[in-house]
Amino acid sequence: MPSLPKHLENLFPHEDLFGALVGYELESYEEGKVRTSLKIEKKHLSPSGKVHGGVISSFVDWSMGAAVFTTIKPGMLCSTIEFKINYLSGVQLGEKIFADSKIKFRGRSHAVIECHVFREEGKDVAVALGTFNIYLAGK
Questions:
Q1: Using CA atoms, how far apart are residues 72 and 67, in angstroms rounded to an integer?
Q2: Domain of 67?
Q3: Is residue 27 part of a domain?
Q4: Residue 1 lies in a domain
Q5: Exposed / middle / buried, residue 113 (Cβ in 10 Å: 0-12, 13-18, 19+)
Q6: CATH of the domain at 122
């Protein structure tokens, strides 16, 4: 994982245990934009043998939030207000998927982010659009 800006390294009072459970990774980032990845394991599968939609939506939510975090100043946080996701194709055990999340609008208190999820060879998995709240920590 690439190194994070100092003010983001110790941002939260506890580690991301849910993130560790899901297993997503930050591949690269620049201001307003991130690429994240997820290697599909047995724990991600639904009874149909494909990746559960909740896994993909959790991955998308985290990726979009990470894009917002690249733009916030020390002492600020963000949270999801809403997002819409379209699932385009199923994902199999053993595949590695990626998400490119990019801020489309950044205001003082809100941001709108688009996210494209795809396989290593480029085939689409999902697309999403989300709105995030930006606020002072402790509020």
A1: 10
A2: 6-136
A3: yes
A4: no
A5: buried
A6: 3.10.129.10
Whether 125 contacts 97, CB under 8 Å: yes
Distances (CA, A) of 42 to 49, 60, 91, 135: 9, 19, 12, 37
Could you tell me which residues are beta bridge partners of residue 116?
100, 127
According to the model, what pLDDT value does residue 6 have? 61
- Maximum pairwise Cα distance, the chain: 44
pTM of the model: 0.90
* b/e code 3-19 from CB counts within 10 Å (16+ = b): eeeeeeeeeeeeeeeee
The number of domains in the chain is 1
26 within a domain of the structure (yes/no): yes
> How far is residue 133's CA from residue 62's CA, in Å, rounded to a whole number?
14
Bridge partner residues of 26 (DSSP)? 36
Neighbours of 134 (CB within 10 A): 19
pLDDT beneath 50, residues of the chain: 1
Count, residues in the chain: 139
Residue 20 lies in a domain: yes
Compute how many other C-beta atoms are within 10 angstroms of the C-beta atom of residue 56: 23
| Residue 50 contacts residue 91 (beta carbons within 8 Å) | yes
Cα separation, 98 vs 122, whole angstroms: 9
